C-alpha cells in the first residue's frame, strides 16, 4: 500500500499551473516509462495501450455543450473516487484546502512496485494554464487536442510514475492510457483493463453487441484499443530501410508515426508503431500479434542492421556518435529537432557498445539521454527557467541544460530528478 | 428554458396542482432526480437522455427530420466532421456507416472481444447510478451556492464537506438532509488510499 501523506492547508496559491488540480504533485523530471532497465530497451523505448470509451446516454464531444461535458467530468471523477483511485482532490472550491503528496516506496529503479496501484491526481485541464497543459503533452500524459480549448476537460494521472492516465472529454468521453518502459505490452494492457473495469463499476459505457464500444470516430469502434510501441530504428534509417519497414507495416494494417504519435513526424529516428483496426479482433489477438509477430520481426531487423554497422562500419558509427556527443556538449544554441537527432545518434552509439562515456563527460549515459528526450522540449525548458521563452532564449536554455547534464554526474532513471 | 435549480437546460417539465392551481416545474435530468422525481421507474435515466426529447441537440433534430433522433446530427454533419454525435447515430446512419466501417476495419463487420461487465439488459437499475452521482453533485453545488448567497455559512460548510466526500468516493455518506451528522469543525475524512491488489 502506498501511504498518502496529507499536507494540511495545502499549497494555497502555490498550486502549479493554476487552480485546475494538484499539478504540484508532479516532478516534471524523468518519467518511469522511459526507464532504461526495461525489456528490449535497446530497440523499444516504451509500450502503450489506449482504450476509448463513451458514457451511455450522454452526447459525444461533437454534440456536447459545456454543461454536458461538465456532467461527464463529474461522473468520471466520482467513478474514479469511488474506486479509490484518486490520491488527492484539491477540493471543488479552488482553494486547495486538501492536498495529498505521495510518498511511494520504490523497488529497484522503479518508483512503484509492479503489483502496487498508484494513486492518481485529478487535473481540471480547462482550469490549468497553458504551459502546464503543454508540459503534460510533452510528457505524453494528454493529447495535443486535450491541451487546446477551454470547455470542461480533465485528466487523472498516476503519480509519481505517470504510467497511467485517464483523459476525460477528449475525442471520446474516456480515454484510458497505460504506458510501460520497454517492450511490456502485457503489463500495460492489464493496467488499462483494471482502470477500465474500475470506472465501469459506476458508469455504463455506450456499447452495441454488433459494433462493440461505441466511439466518436468509427475508426475506433469495437475494442476501442490502440496498441503502440515506440521504437528507435537508427540503423535501419542509416541503411535506407525505413521505407521497407513502413511498407511492411502498412501491409499489416499498422500505422507508423513520429515521437508524438498522430500527426507527428519521426524525430531522431524514434517511431511509433500502432494498430489501425479495432473491430473484428479481440484485444488478446491484437496484443499477441504485436508480441509474437510484429515486434520480434522489427526488433530483429534493427538489431541485425546494428550488428552489420558495428562489424563493418564501426569507425563510422563511433565517429558519428562522438560528433553528436561533442555537439551536444558544446553547442551554444540548440533547436529541439537538432537535439533529438543528436540524442538519437548518441543513443545508438551507447546501446551498440561502441561509444564509451569519455572522462570529461561523465553524465553521458543512456539514462541521461532518455531524460533529455523529455527535458529538451519547450514547455519543460520554460518550466525550468520559470517563464515563457522566446525561440532564441529556448535554444540557449536547451543547450545549457544539455551541457550541464553531460558534464555533470551520472543520473539514474530510478531517481526522480526534477528540474 | 433553464432548469429552476441550476444553469443547465430544463429537459423535464412537470405540471402539478397546488391548491387547485397549476404550477409548472422545469428541471434538467440531474436536478429532477435530485428532487426525487420518479422519471421512469423501470428505465435508466440514461435511456431518457438518449430519447428524442431529452437533449438540446435532440430538440434541434425535431426541426431536422433527417437528423439522428438521439442528437440531431445529420449525415452531412458526419461527412464533414468524421465523428458521430451520440451512440444512437450508429443506428440512425447504420446502413450508410456499415460500408465505411467495414472498409476502415479490413472488412470486419462485428465486434469480437471485451464486453462491458454489466450487460445493458441486466443493469437497468445500476445504470442510473452514475446519473445519480452526477445529479447529487449538481444538486449539492446548487445548494452550496444558495447557502453562500444566503450567508448560511454553517450549512455551506456542511455541504462543502459532503461534496468533498462525494468526490472522494464517500458516496454512501450522510445526506444533505441530515446536516447535523457532521459537526462543523469535524476533521475531513482522510483521502482514500489505494486498495491492495491491482496494478498501476
Indicate the overall shape of chain B.
elongated
Assess the beta-strand content of chain A as a share of residues.
Answer: 15-25%
Molecular shape of chain A: globular
Distance between the termini of chain B: 44 Å
> Mind summarizing the main beta sheet of chain B?
2 strands, antiparallel
Q: Approximately how much beta-strand content do the residues of chain B carry?
A: 5-15%
- Structural class by sheet pairing and helices of chain B: mainly alpha
Number of strands of chain B: 2
Number of strands of chain A: 13
Distance between the termini of chain A: 28 Å
Oligomer: heterodimer
Query: If interface size is counted as residues with C-beta under 8 Å from the partner's C-beta, which chains form the largest one?
Result: A-B, 89 and 78 residues
| Largest sheet features of chain A | 9 strands, mixed
Structure, explained:
The complex is a heterodimer of chains A (419) and B (200). Chain A has 419 residues and is α+β, with helices and mostly antiparallel strands. Chain A is 38% helix and 15% strand. In chain A, the strands form 3 sheets. Chain A has a 9-stranded mixed β-sheet with strand order 3-5-6-7-8-2-11-13-12, covered by helices on one side. In chain A, strands 1-4 form a two-stranded antiparallel ribbon. Chain A has a two-stranded antiparallel ribbon with strand order 9-10. Chain A is globular. Chain A starts with a strand and ends in a 12-residue tail after the last helix. The model of chain A is unreliable at 1-16, 89-115 and 414-419 (pLDDT under 50). Chain B is mainly α and 200 residues long. In chain B, 40% of the residues lie in helices and 7% in strands. Chain B has 8 helices and 2 strands. The longest helix of chain B has 26 residues, at 124-149. Chain B is elongated and about 60 Å long. The model of chain B is unreliable at 38-63, 123-127 and 171-200 (pLDDT under 50).
Amino acid at each position: 500500500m502506498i501511504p498518502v501523506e496529507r499536507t494540511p492547508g495545502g499549497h494555497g496559491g502555490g498550486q502549479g499551473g493554476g487552480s485546475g488540480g494538484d499539478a504540484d504533485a508532479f516532478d516534471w523530471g524523468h518519467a518511469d516509462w522511459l526507464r532504461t532497465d526495461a525489456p528490449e530497451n535497446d530497440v523499444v523505448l516504451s509500450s502503450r495501450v489506449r482504450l476509448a470509451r463513451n458514457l451511455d446516454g450522454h452526447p459525444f464531444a461533437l454534440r456536447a455543450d459545456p454543461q454536458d461535458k461538465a456532467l461527464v467530468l463529474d461522473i468520471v471523477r466520482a467513478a474514479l473516487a469511488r474506486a479509490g483511485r484518486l490520491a488527492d482532490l484539491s477540493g471543488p472550491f479552488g482553494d486547495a484546502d486538501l492536498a495529498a503528496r505521495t510518498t511511494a516506496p520504490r523497488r529497484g529503479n522503479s518508483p512503484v512496485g509492479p503489483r502496487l496501484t498508484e494513486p492518481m491526481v485529478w487535473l481540471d485541464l480547462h482550469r490549468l494554464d497553458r504551459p502546464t497543459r503543454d508540459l503534460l503533452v510533452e510528457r505524453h500524459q494528454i493529447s495535443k487536442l486535450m491541451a487546446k480549448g477551454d470547455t470542461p476537460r480533465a485528466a487523472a494521472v498516476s503519480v509519481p510514475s505517470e504510467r497511467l492516465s485517464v483523459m476525460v472529454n477528449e475525442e471520446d468521453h474516456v480515454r484510458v492510457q497505460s504506458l510501460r518502459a520497454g517492450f511490456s505490452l502485457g503489463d500495460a494492457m492489464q493496467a488499462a483493463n483494471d482502470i477500465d473495469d474500475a470506472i465501469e463499476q459506476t458508469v455504463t459505457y455506450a456499447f452495441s453487441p454488433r459494433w462493440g464500444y461505441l466511439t466518436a470516430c468509427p475508426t475506433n469502434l469495437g475494442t476501442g484499443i490502440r496498441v503502440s510501441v515506440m521504437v528507435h530504428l537508427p540503423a535501419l534509417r542509416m541503411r535506407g530501410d525505413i521505407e521497407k519497414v513502413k511498407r511492411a507495416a502498412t501491409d499489416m494494417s499498422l500505422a507508423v508515426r513520429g515521437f508524438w504519435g498522430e500527426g507527428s513526424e519521426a524525430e531522431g529516428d524514434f517511431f511509433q508503431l500502432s494498430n489501425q483496426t479495432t473491430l473484428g479482433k479481440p484485444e488478446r489477438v491484437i496484443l499477441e500479434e504485436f508480441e509474437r509477430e510484429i515486434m520480434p520481426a522489427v526488433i530483429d531487423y534493427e538489431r541485425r542492421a546494428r550488428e552489420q554497422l558495428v562489424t563493418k562500419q564501426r569507425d563510422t558509427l563511433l565517429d558519428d556518435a562522438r560528433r553528436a556527443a561533442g555537439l551536444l556538449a558544446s553547442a551554444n544554441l540548440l533547436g529541439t529537432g537538432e537535439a533529438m537527432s543528436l540524442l538519437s545518434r548518441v543513443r545508438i552509439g551507447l546501446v551498440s557498445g561502441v561509444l564509451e562515456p569519455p572522462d570529461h563527460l561523465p553524465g553521458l549515459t543512456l539514462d541521461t539521454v532518455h531524460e533529455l528526450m523529455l527535458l529538451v522540449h519547450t514547455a519543460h525548458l520554460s518550466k525550468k527557467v520559470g517563464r515563457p521563452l522566446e525561440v532564441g532564449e529556448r535554444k540557449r536554455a536547451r543547450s545549457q541544460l544539455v551541457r550541464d547534464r553531460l558534464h555533470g554526474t551520472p543520473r539514474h532513471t530510478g531517481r526522480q530528478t526534477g528540474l | 428554458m433553464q432548469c429552476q435549480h441550476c444553469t443547465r437546460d430544463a429537459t423535464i417539465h412537470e405540471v402539478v396542482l397546488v391548491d387547485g392551481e397549476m404550477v409548472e416545474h422545469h428541471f434538467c435530468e440531474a436536478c429532477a432526480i435530485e428532487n426525487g422525481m420518479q422519471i421512469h421507474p423501470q428505465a435508466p435515466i440514461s435511456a431518457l437522455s438518449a430519447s428524442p426529447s431529452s437533449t438540446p441537440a435532440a430538440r434541434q433534430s425535431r426541426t431536422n427530420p433527417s437528423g439522428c433522433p438521439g442528437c440531431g446530427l445529420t449525415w452531412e454533419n458526419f461527412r464533414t466532421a468524421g465523428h458521430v454525435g451520440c451512440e444512437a447515430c450508429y443506428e440512425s446512419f447504420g446502413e450508410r456507416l456499415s460500408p465505411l466501417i467495414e472498409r476502415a476495419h479490413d472488412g470486419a463487420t462485428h465486434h469480437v472481444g471485451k464486453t462491458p461487465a454489466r450487460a445493458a439488459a441486466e443493469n437497468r437499475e445500476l445504470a442510473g447510478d452514475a446519473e445519480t452521482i452526477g445529479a447529487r453533485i449538481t444538486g449539492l453545488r446548487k445548494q452550496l451556492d444558495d447557502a453562500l448567497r444566503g450567508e448560511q455559512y454553517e450549512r455551506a460548510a456542511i455541504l462543502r464537506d459532503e461534496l468533498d466526500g462525494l468526490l472522494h468516493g464517500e458516496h454512501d455518506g450522510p445526506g444533505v438532509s441530515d446536516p447535523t451528522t457532521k459537526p462543523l469543525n469535524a476533521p475531513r475524512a482522510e483521502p482514500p488510499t489505494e486498495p491492495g491488489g491491482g496494478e498501476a
